[in-house]
Design a protein that fits this description.
79 residues; single chain; mainly alpha; 2 helices
Length: 79
């Protein structure tokens, strides 16, 4: 019974994702243009993430176990 309930809840959760184009509510438009801009941004421009929102990884991942460097902030718990 629990497996059936869990499976049904997963199916319902997966079905709630909508895959249609985003639209504004009827009678409403996009946000006003920012100060200095000549026209408001289009919907696709508002959905683009800038570099700070999704930075690229700049550190190479470790391939194997290595000794850790001494950490001056790794203190024992207070007594």
């Amino acid at each position: 019974m629990r497996k059936t309930l869990a499976l049904a809840s997963l199916v319902l959760l997966a079905a709630c994702g909508q895959r249609a184009e985003l639209e504004t509510y009827p009678g409403e438009g996009l946000p006003v243009a920012p100060l200095g801009a000549s026209a408001p941004a289009e919907a696709e421009e508002l959905l683009e993430r800038d570099a700070q929102a999704a930075p690229e990884r700049s550190v190479e991942l470790r391939r194997r176990s290595e000794e850790r460097e001494d950490d001056p902030f790794d203190l024992p718990p207070p007594e």
